[in-house]
């Protein structure tokens, strides 16, 4: 691992480290199946949750320090900033490339017109074997045996269902991503 990734990773809880390693394994598999850069897949996986355990206040301060403009959903739920903050850490350290930073930035909220790498990370984060929900194995099958696009739409729907069950609002980017993905399929 490289500099900031190794440093930040070592500060995370064992639970978070294991989650990241499971996502990295899933990304390795998806990269091989869907002809994605294995290097970019691993960087995206290893970087995606580096800021996930920061408190709401610290995360908000770090986002502002990095120059991020906070949207209304991010002000209400600062945990949504952990992807953008981690992406900017890697970008400022010149680790990875735009495709990696995009994947990390949007791995929680999704977004319209994401690259295949970003879709793969959104999916891998949701279907890694530590996740427990009824359709996980079906989603994994679709991601590995069918298409990233189909798995992405299913993962968006599953995520929205989960958010509704917790009385949380989906991010506007997620709503738009689902709308555009359904229109194009």
Automatic annotation (TrEMBL):
Transmembrane segments: none
Enzyme class (EC, first level): hydrolase
GO molecular function: bis(5'-nucleosyl)-tetraphosphatase (symmetrical) activity; metal ion binding; nucleotide binding
Signal sequence interval, chain numbering: none
InterPro entries: Diverse_Catalytic_Enzymes, HD/PDEase_dom, HD_domain, YqeK
Substrates-to-products reaction catalysed: P(1),P(4)-bis(5'-adenosyl) tetraphosphate + H2O = 2 ADP + 2 H(+)
Enzyme nomenclature, EC number: 3.6.1.41
SMART domains: HDc (SM00471)
Residue ranges constituting the HD/PDEase domain according to the UniProt record: 12-139
Coiled coil spans: none
UniProt entry keywords in alphabetical sequence: Hydrolase, Iron, Metal-binding, Nucleotide-binding
Record protein name field: bis(5'-nucleosyl)-tetraphosphatase (symmetrical)
Source organism per UniProt: Sulfobacillus benefaciens
């Amino acid at each position: 691992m490289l500099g900031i990734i190794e440093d930040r990773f070592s500060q995370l809880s064992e639970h978070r480290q294991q989650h990241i390693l499971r996502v990295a394994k899933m990304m390795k598999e998806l990269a091989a199946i869907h002809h994605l850069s294995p290097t970019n897949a691993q960087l995206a996986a290893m970087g995606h949750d580096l800021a996930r355990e920061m408190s709401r206040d610290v995360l908000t301060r770090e986002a502002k320090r990095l120059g991020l403009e906070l949207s209304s959903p991010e002000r209400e739920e600062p945990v949504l900033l952990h992807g953008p903050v981690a992406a900017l850490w890697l970008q400022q350290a010149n680790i990875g490339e735009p495709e990696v930073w995009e994947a990390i930035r949007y791995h929680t909220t999704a977004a319209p017109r994401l690259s295949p790498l970003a879709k793969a990370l959104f999916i891998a984060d949701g279907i890694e074997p530590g996740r427990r929900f009824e359709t996980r194995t079906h989603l994994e099958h679709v991601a590995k045996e069918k298409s990233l696009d189909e798995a992405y739409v299913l993962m968006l729907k599953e995520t929205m269902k989960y958010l509704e069950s917790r009385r949380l609002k989906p991010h506007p980017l997620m709503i738009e991503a689902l709308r555009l993905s359904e229109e194009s399929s």
